[in-house]
Amino acid sequence: MAVIAFIGLGNMGGPMAANLVKAGHQLRGVDVVPAAVEKAAQAGIEPRADIAAAVSGADTVITMLPAGQHVEDAYLRDGILAAATPKTLLIDCSTIDVETARNVGAAATAQGFAMVDAPVSGGVTGAENAALTFMVGGAADAFARAEPILQAMGKTIVHAGGPGNGQAAKICNNLMLGIQMISVGEAFVLAEKLGLDAQKLFDISSTASGQCWSLTTYCPVPGPVPTSPANRDYQAGFTAAMMLKDLRLAMGAAGSTGANLELGAKATDLYDAFVDAGHAGLDFSGIIRSIRN
Ligand code: NAD
Predict the structure, then answer these.
(1) Which of 39, 87, 155, 170 is catalytic?
(2) Where in the chain are the domains?
(3) Does the annotation mark 245 as catalytic?
């Protein structure tokens, strides 16, 4: 079993690290928020004062941080690459921009480390239940080393290609998701205005060509899918702020590659306005409220 340094013990990182403990690994944890470290300690993760202390002598380092700047700082400035030994496997599970993922991956590779970007889908519930999907970018040998560790935290592990391709897959997926949730919300609002019952629309479209995850698993009106956030007043789930973050990552990638994403741009504007109106912490499916109003 491996000695694993886990950096970033927040909503996702905390339960992911706890599942690695359950799988028999020895975990060292670091977070800038003391409460996160204390909670992790209760799940068997040994607190370390800083990144260098956690990484020194570890077999594997996993980061689960908010954004690209945190990841760049952690690896290049705050000690991961400096404190890791050459055999240490590096896994970044944060959702960040492709460019930063490739830059950090290149810096790690240049120093002889195996590194993968391995962002996740499945949210906090997926993290708690070790049921995440990992989209992994990196060299084949780095993927082969990372896969058994990721299996302790997830159900589906996909090698998406070279460095940064895990992040590319994640933002392309969430671009689809953000647009689809708006399209499903618009359809339910139009149905309301046309006097078409929401359950009827669900019964028809969930087996017709409008079928998609935003409809069948995460239906934005209460009733048809009892587990969807609409049934608990849009308590997240996956917050509108997170969706906006991912759409901005997609739009940033579109800008740097010359891809023309007209619906992506519009979806970003709509989530931006929704978040600006004070709904950052609501589930992203709550966007139907601003469509209705
Ligand atoms: P979070 O804010 O709950 O956790 C991030 C943690 O990193 C925080 O506890 C923070 O204190 C810590 N941190 C920040 N800088 C640090 C540093 N220098 N050293 C140590 N710790 C530091 O966020 P989260 O919900 O756990 O999300 C983490 C990543 O996973 C994000 O990139 C997010 O986009 C992605 N993600 C989240 C979800 C979700 O549903 N929450 C789903 C998929 C992907």
Answers:
(1) 170
(2) 3-162, 168-292
(3) no
